[in-house]
Amino acid sequence: MKLKRFLLRYYPPGIILEYEQGGETRSKCIDLLDLRPESDVGELVSEICTREPLVTLSKAEQLAGLIRKLQGKLSESHETQFQLFKEVRTHLLPLTNIAINKSGSCFITGSYDRTCKVWGGESGEELLTLEGHKNVVYTVAFNNPYGDKIATGSFDKTCKLWSAESGTCYHTYRGHTGEIICLTFDPLSTMIASGGIDATARLWSVEHGTELATLAGHSSEVICVHFNNSGSQVASGSFDHTAIIWDTHTGRSVHSLLGHRGEISSVAFDYGGNTVATGSMDKTCKIWDIRSGQLITTLRGHKDEVLDVAFDSTGQQLVTASADGTACVFNTTTLNCVHRLQGHQGEISKVPHTLSHTHCIYYYYYTVHM
């Protein structure tokens, strides 16, 4: 193996090693999720050189420089003020859901009028109307980070896959026997997971338009699904008060997460895929160990139902949104609530599943001088 170059990933912090093996160019990632502006660079470089054979001591100085760049980015202030930019009059009937592509160049809306519309992010103009469902379009998703495909789930018991550019319908997925109320793409855009009133989650092939697996194990509606970062596992949450971790290759249950006293409203893996968080109508959020399926902790602090949960890029902070009109940011190490976000007059139903600026992953390229 021969190291060719480093690729510096700002968010979440990490260094990609591009190397040559057997005539092929390959890559591996060194995640630096625990990196802080005050971290000891020399100690970190020494640790990487010890455990990674591709990084020799001759590259230590260059590696140290890259880590300092990451620290500099972490030290930057990201305070932003928001104001109303544009109000878009969208559908004839009420909206059900909204999704934004990664670049922010367009967004999509689902509606009770049985359509999904694509809108320009800056202009606010309607770009496409996706028609074909025979009932409410309840859930919509982009295949981020690519953003070239759209999935829609409907009360007509089908999912559809569309071109985000032309509006062409590639596939209609049939198999659910009840209304579809949640769906998402895996990070590689090879699969779609959907959940429905029929108490099942299902996996679908993006390329072939076929069903890959029926995930049956819940006794009530599946209302949330979420893939881990590699796409090897998907979590489903249900009104039966449980969440289940599934192996996407075999379609088998890995762990059933039992302990909530109310319906599950949201599930979310951390970036590293080591833990999963569940939010519930019982006013709590629980964090679970992926390997063992055991409960790590229960986070309390809301006075009403927890409606959504999301980790930051490092898994060291977790935000919960609640029907009590507040959001709480928890430190997952100390388990303390470090911020309580107040100001909404009604319930907070959603928080982004890649917090802060972590929804953008930037790569910077550095040649290794041999």
Automatic annotation (TrEMBL):
Keywords from the UniProt entry: Repeat, WD repeat
Against SMART domains, the record matches this protein to: WD40
Check the record and name the InterPro entries matching this protein: WD40/YVTN_repeat-like_dom_sf, WD40_PAC1, WD40_repeat_CS, WD40_repeat_dom_sf, WD40_rpt
- SUPFAM superfamilies according to UniProt: WD40 repeat-like
Q: Where are the WD repeats?
A: 88-129, 130-172, 173-214, 215-256, 257-298, 299-340
Q: Give any Gene Ontology cellular component.
A: transferase complex
One Pfam match, by short name? WD40
Its protein name is Dynein assembly factor with WDR repeat domains 1
Per the UniProt record, the lineage of the source organism begins with: Eukaryota, Metazoa, Porifera, Demospongiae, Heteroscleromorpha
